[in-house]
Design a protein that fits this description.
The chain is α/β, with parallel strands linked by helices. About 35% of the residues lie in helices and about 20% in strands. The protein is built from nine helices and 13 strands. It has a seven-stranded parallel beta sheet with strand order 3-2-1-4-5-6-11, with helices on both faces. The chain has a four-stranded mixed beta sheet with strand order 8-7-10-12. Helix 3 runs parallel beside helix 4 and helix 5 crosses helix 7. It is globular and about 60 Å long. It starts with a strand and ends in a 19-residue tail after the last helix.
């Protein structure tokens, strides 16, 4: 298939791009700069120069597509309106395609809010942080759009041995600094390795039924206090010092979205396993950084 990928140079999108190319799909990736374009080309995609914040300038240049994967976000305070404007411009163009494109939209685990001991499923109610409330509106618009066959993937906290949600932990350990944990070491995160998540996007794109929603969660929940020692083993650090940072301070430093790190959540990926045959490799603390397969 010919796939248009938004966010192809980001952490999630770059892994999705690699998996799409490995599976033999033709990928066109949105590139905001020549540097991004070069990265996409090196990864096997054809770049389309354009800014996510100015979709009217590039949507008319899109060729005939079989699918779209939207894995882009800058986590800015205006991310909801930016996404709304993107859909305003993109959906009519997709509706004019000779064949209904398959559109995979990215939601997120933080839309479910704090779940405590309850394990959230795709049917669980949303309770988003204010910074993400408009994401739900945009997601529902995609699911209800008559121009496309739509799907949603809600990734858990995404990581790899190169970083992702663990990047700040790794950087601190390498520099011999205290690891900053937002909220508490008892906060529980649902997790998914970036390679496993990329496999899920591919499976959703290729074989899911239109209108399907899947949680991309390989580990329902793992306490941050259990995650830090596993990262330390990977880095080769013994007994890392942990410094607790309040959610208020994190929001002040990074933006309101950063309060998500203090949400204690559990998220089930059972539906994707049962319906699509998704087989994540990294399913517990011991296999966090195990080499992923390409099934």
């Amino acid at each position: 298939m010919r796939i248009f990928l938004l966010g192809g140079t980001g952490f999630i999108g770059s892994h999705v791009l690699q998996r799409l190319v490995e599976a033999g799909h033709e990928v066109i990736g949105l590139a905001r700069s020549e540097t991004s374009a070069d990265r996409l080309t090196a990864a096997g995609a054809t770049p389309l120069l354009g800014d996510l914040r100015a979709p009217a300038e590039w949507v008319a240049k899109l060729p005939t597509l079989d699918g779209v994967i939207h894995a882009a976000s800058d986590f800015g305070d205006d991310m909801g309106p930016v996404d709304m404007a993107l859909l305003d411009a993109l959906l009519p163009v997709l509706g004019a395609m000779p064949k209904r494109p398959r559109f995979v939209y990215t939601g997120g685990c933080w839309l479910f809010g704090a779940t405590g001991e309850r394990v959230a499923s795709e049917d669980s109610p949303f309770d988003p942080l204010p910074a993400f409330s408009e994401t739900i509106t945009n997601m529902r618009r995609v699911l209800e759009a008559p121009e496309i066959d739509s799907f949603v993937v809600h990734p858990a906290m995404v990581y790899s041995s190169e970083g992702g949600v663990f990047s700040s932990f790794m950087e601190a350990m390498r520099e011999g600094k205290p690891v900053e944990v937002i909220g508490s070491e008892q906060v529980v995160w649902p997790l998914v390795h970036a390679d496993d998540l990329a496999n899920l996007y591919l499976q959703v794109l290729e074989k899911a039924k239109p209108g399907s929603v899947y949680n991309g969660s390989a580990i329902d929940g793992l306490a941050v206090g259990e995650i830090v020692p596993e990262v330390a083993r990977l880095i080769g650090t013994e007994h890392p010092e942990v410094h607790i940072v309040s959610a208020d301070l994190a929001a002040e430093r990074l933006g309101e979205w950063a309060r998500g790190y203090a949400l204690s959540q559990r998220l089930s990926g059972h539906k994707a396993r049962a319906e699509l045959g998704w087989k994540p490799v990294h399913q517990d603390a011991a296999s966090l950084f195990q080499r992923a397969n390409r099934e």
